[in-house]
Amino acid sequence: MSSSQNREMGLCFLVCIVSCSFIYVSSQSAVAGNDNSSVSEGTVFIDGKTCIGKIDEDFICATLDWWPPEKCDYGTCSWDQASLINLDLNNNILLNAIKAFSPLKIRLGGTLQDKVIYDTEDNKQPCVQFVKNTSQMFGFTQGCLPMYRWDELNAFFKKSGAEIIFGLNALAGRSIKSDGSAVGAWNYTNAESFISYTVKKNYSIYGWELGNELSGSGVGTRVAAAQYASDTISLYNTVKKIYSSIEPKPLVIAPGGFFDANWFKEFVDKTGNSVNAITHHIYNLGPGVDTHLIEKILDPSYLDGEADTFNSLQSTIKSSATSAVAWVGESGGAYNSGRNLVANAFVFSFWYLDQLGMASAYDTKTYCRQSLIGGNYGLLNTTTFVPNPDYYSALLWHRLMGRNVLSTSFSGTKKIRAYTHCAKQSKGITLLLINLDNSTTAEVTVTFNSTWRLHQKHKHKLHKPHRSHKLHKPHRSHKSHKSKVIQLPQRSTSGITREEYHLTAKDGDLHSQTMLLNGNILTVNSSGDIPSLEPLHVNSSKPIMVAPFSIVFVQMPYVLPACS
């Protein structure tokens, strides 16, 4: 090897790679922000040595609910025909929207699931639908799932390739005391009959979940942790018995409620290995009627607040003998059906993608968005089925963000959120950048800060430095780093390209329900086909430009130890 080659190899002792920018396209301003914006430089630090979390391959999940058209909040009725009972299963956009994920997890459930009876052979009650009645818990009478509708739903799910999690009625057999608590053991006779029917019909179920929002102080009513653990063990034994000759068996999932540290600890300790996934719900933005939702979404410190819940649940699971994993079982951001032109608009992708990034960094395996359709927070428009901006955010995440999560931090403006995963469909990594600033473009360079050997496509290997620096808290700014940072010579990256996906709101309007990808409007065609999501190919020697109020996914062909 010549001395000049030796020098080149020496230059590749590298913990810092200047990476990433955009290609100037005809609609340059749509991708990189307008000419009036100021520019702020910053650095993303990525620890590529080990992963800090590992998500499911099918991490993205969405919900279908039971709410009838009469469900109204603050004088607005936003559910229309989006209930499991009346949803139009022949709609082509709905089918294509689910098929685009191959597969999408769908959780069937919500508030009214604990008032649903299943019209199987054992059921002796009339099978009537929910009727609005404000004197009843949750504002509706008892409802019923006819088996012909269950058959229709399963035919649709099979056609769409969805993976189904079904939320069972956990209040059956209990009585409500004057203090609002639900007491007595779960009567699982009807649920057992329903599960048996499902198996007999050879319907594929990914998981059976017990109850909705009955943990801690509950919503409407509550069940004590010890009793809930006992009931979950009953579900586990029922599933084990009915699926005795079938593999793989569905997951047993619970409790599907809001995180309460003491309640969850007792529940996790007492269920042992009779539960596979611990589900909690997130509505951290408050009620949909709140006029300050956008201020909360654009406030980095407000977004950071939810990290405490993720951290506490992760600690609860780690300190227990359980083999269960954490899921977000339902999350709509703003409760009581969300808010029109916020929860179904571009601005909500800031909250949603930040949640996906944060949840992943705390080893959450699956994240179920309320809802696929229905309410103001649906990924699809309730009446037209046309995808809202968050649908495309979810689809890009699903296609680009791989299972392994890398510790990531950002040094610079507090308005940038940064998350990194190993890439999903190719070698390398995918970086997600969110710019919450309304007037400043972030000019971002990327530094790999760890003990590793970097591989570039079509380039020499980069050798291993001797120091490592672990970066924690993926959503907070980076304060200090002790590893030596060596700048990569520009010619080492000049032949490498990366892929960039810039997401912006139409006309820069945060309330817009139209999202642009690299300056082009995303919409279905007349046949209801989901558009292809095409990246820009960018020279890796340039920094990444993140326009004001924009989101960028950047796929880079650098193979790190955590990804190999």
UniProtKB/TrEMBL annotation:
<keyword id="KW-0458">Lysosome</keyword>
<dbReference type="GO" id="GO:0005765">
    <property type="term" value="C:lysosomal membrane"/>
</dbReference>
<keyword id="KW-0378">Hydrolase</keyword>
<comment type="similarity">
    <text>Belongs to the glycosyl hydrolase 79 family.</text>
</comment>
<keyword id="KW-0325">Glycoprotein</keyword>
<feature type="compositionally biased region" description="Basic residues">
    <location>
        <begin position="459"/>
        <end position="484"/>
    </location>
</feature>
<dbReference type="GO" id="GO:0004566">
    <property type="term" value="F:beta-glucuronidase activity"/>
</dbReference>
<keyword id="KW-0732">Signal</keyword>
<dbReference type="Pfam" id="PF03662">
    <property type="entry name" value="Glyco_hydro_79n"/>
</dbReference>
<dbReference type="GO" id="GO:0009505">
    <property type="term" value="C:plant-type cell wall"/>
</dbReference>
<keyword id="KW-0472">Membrane</keyword>
<feature type="region of interest" description="Disordered">
    <location>
        <begin position="459"/>
        <end position="491"/>
    </location>
</feature>
<keyword id="KW-0964">Secreted</keyword>
<dbReference type="GO" id="GO:0005576">
    <property type="term" value="C:extracellular region"/>
</dbReference>
<feature type="signal peptide">
    <location>
        <begin position="1"/>
        <end position="27"/>
    </location>
</feature>
<protein>
    <recommendedName>
        <fullName>Heparanase-like protein 3</fullName>
    </recommendedName>
</protein>
<dbReference type="InterPro" id="IPR005199">
    <property type="entry name" value="Glyco_hydro_79"/>
</dbReference>
<comment type="function">
    <text>Endoglycosidase which is a cell surface and extracellular matrix-degrading enzyme. Cleaves heparan sulfate proteoglycans (HSPGs) into heparan sulfate side chains and core proteoglycans.</text>
</comment>
